[in-house]
């Protein structure tokens, strides 16, 4: 099988019998027909069709043509370049807005399999587990969501208050036998939870003992697995909500109600030392950030297009502060491109012969974009001002007031309808529920910005020291 069409993908997801609760209701029947999930699944299906399209095959298929690019383990810098182009091509078709296109988690599975010897340090069975998880994913062209954050009842850093042996809050191992382990408790937060083939569970960094340290995959319709999805921000009318209507992904709390996981699906188990090394030594941190930064480049290109289109349509480009605001978007775009090129040109093969982009610029890109995205959205708001509030709806244009709209709401060079389409798009990006969730996503999907910045501070320590010594040498000469 190896590479599926969009239709095959949808057929497979329709057969999943995941337990999903959304807005107080149990999702009955096919998720592919549910109003909360239908649109995003179709958007993902179109990504699979692109892979099989001859026009894109060179970029979107792995070099051996047996899988899509996300499963290819990069061995050379040319492989990285190809991966960058592929990620950006998929992102262009979803405007950089779809956070979880299949390659985000697939890449993690591929890189972990490439570094299977890392897991085998704890026993060869763990190396074999990650390898067979990878092979199954490639063979079936799977998609995953993932979860690695413990829910916390209080803001205590490592221990979720209310935890008890009988009723754990954070998902933990409560039993093990010769066949596998039993997990009970919850994790947050799985974007697209319940509507991907499988769920990747990574060991949580916030643990009190080894009961919380496990890495595994489970099919989304595993018995006892529940996805508590937030109410959908999706909308029906594409004219009024062009993004909410097409790219709303959903996010779910994941509950493990005595979920049994067979040993052959467990690739990390109760090993604190390996857990502490997982992200850096295998290379998955760099690859996750590399995927994210490439998607964010495309998203910034899209935002630049929206910003300039607003400037043209509202005819406000003569004001220097407006020019300055669009320039800020250009600066963000060039900065993001710079981070990626820096990471790519400084890439080095790791101990598993995986060509890993340099982590430091990518960590910097994560810090930068977590904060900058909010400013980019603010710029869209400042350019659009009250035009977003007065923008009419599709129904207005089909009503008796349409003529008045054409008279009062048109642009200098555009019809009222054309102008409204742009305003509704910019509005959906910047002030809708969907747009606000995008802001939270860019801030938090890789972790809390404060702690991500703190991670960079500590990671860059050796370089900081080098520059401190430079300054000290200079100071000595001043005596
Ligand atoms: C839209 C969206 C989608 C997501 N999708 C996924 C997904 O698919 N898979 C997944 O695993 N995760 C996902 N996440 C979760 C993401 O990983 C977490 O949001 C992130 O790790 C931060 O954790 P938290 O939300 O629990 O915030 P908290 O850790 O509770 O932080 C809340 C606030 O308290 C402060 N704070 C808390 N503790 C500390 C501390 N020790 N030191 C300093 N400040 C502190 C933070 O700075 C922050 O301001 C998603 C998040 C969002 C918003």
Radius of gyration: 24 Å
Which strand order spans the largest sheet, edge to edge or round the barrel? 2-1-8-9-5-4
Unreliable stretches covering 5 or more consecutive residues? none
Bound molecules: flavin-adenine dinucleotide
Tell me, rounded to a whole number, the average pLDDT.
94
CATH top level assignment of the largest domain: Mainly Beta
Helix-strand category:
alpha+beta
Write out the CATH superfamily name of the largest domain. Answer: Butyryl-CoA Dehydrogenase, subunit A, domain 2
Note the gap between the termini: 73 Å
- Portion of residues in beta strands equals 5-15%
Fraction of residues in helix: 40-55%
Shape: globular
Count the domains. Answer: 2
Q: Sketch the major β-sheet.
A: 6 strands, mixed
Number of helical segments?
19
DSSP summary, beta strand count: 12
CATH architecture of the largest domain: Beta Barrel
Reported by name, the CATH topology of the largest domain is Butyryl-CoA Dehydrogenase, subunit A, domain 2
């Amino acid at each position: 099988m190896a590479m599926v069409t969009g239709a095959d993908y949808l057929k497979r997801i329709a057969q999943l019998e995941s337990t999903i609760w959304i807005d107080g209701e149990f999702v009955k029947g096919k998720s592919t027909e549910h109003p909360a999930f239908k649109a995003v699944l179709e958007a993902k299906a179109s990504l699979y069709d692109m892979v099989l399209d001859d026009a894109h095959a060179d970029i979107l298929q792995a070099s051996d043509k047996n899988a899509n690019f996300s499963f290819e383990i990069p061995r050379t810098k040319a492989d990285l370049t190809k991966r960058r182009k592929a990620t950006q091509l998929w992102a262009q078709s979803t405007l950089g807005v779809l956070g979880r296109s299949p390659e985000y988690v697939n890449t993690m599975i591929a890189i972990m399999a490439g570094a299977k010897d890392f897991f085998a340090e704890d026993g060869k069975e763990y190396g074999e587990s990650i390898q067979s998880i990878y092979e199954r994913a490639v063979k079936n062209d799977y998609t995953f969501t993932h979860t690695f954050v413990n829910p916390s009842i209080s803001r205590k850093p490592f221990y979720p208050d209310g935890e008890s042996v009988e009723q754990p809050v954070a998902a933990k191992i409560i039993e093990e036998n010769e066949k596998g382990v039993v997990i009970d408790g919850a994790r947050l937060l799985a974007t697209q939870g319940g509507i991907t083939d499988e769920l990747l569970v990574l060991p949580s960094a916030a643990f009190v003992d080894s009961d919380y340290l496990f890495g595994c995959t489970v099919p989304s319709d595993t018995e006892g697995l529940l996805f508590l999805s937030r109410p959908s921000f999706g909308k029906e009318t594409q004219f009024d909500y062009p993004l909410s209507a097409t790219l709303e992904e959903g996010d779910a709390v994941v509950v493990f109600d005595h979920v049994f996981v067979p040993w052959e699906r467990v690739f990390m188990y109760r090993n604190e030392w390996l857990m502490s090394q997982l992200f850096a030594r295998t290379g998955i941190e760099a690859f996750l950030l590399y995927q994210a930064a490439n998607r964010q480049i495309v998203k910034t290109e899209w935002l630049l297009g929206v910003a300039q289109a607003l400037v043209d349509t509202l005819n406000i480009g003569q004001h220097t502060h407006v020019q300055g605001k669009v320039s800020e978007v250009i600066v963000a775009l060039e900065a993001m491109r710079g981070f990626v090129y820096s990471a790519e040109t400084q890439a080095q093969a790791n101990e598993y012969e995986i060509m890993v982009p340099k982590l430091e610029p990518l960590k910097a890109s994560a810090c930068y974009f977590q904060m900058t995205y909010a400013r980019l959205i603010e710029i869209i708001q400042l350019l659009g001002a009250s035009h977003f509030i007065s923008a009419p709806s599709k129904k207005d244009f089909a009503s008796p007031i349409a003529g008045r709209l054409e008279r009062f709401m048109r642009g200098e060079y555009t019809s009222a309808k054309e102008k409204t389409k742009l305003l509704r798009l910019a509005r959906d990006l910047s002030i809708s529920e969907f747009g606000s969730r995008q802001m939270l996503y860019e801030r938090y999907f890789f972790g809390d910005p404060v702690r991500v910045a703190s991670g960079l501070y500590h990671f860059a320590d050796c370089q900081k020291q080098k520059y401190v010594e430079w300054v000290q040498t200079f100071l000595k000469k001043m005596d």
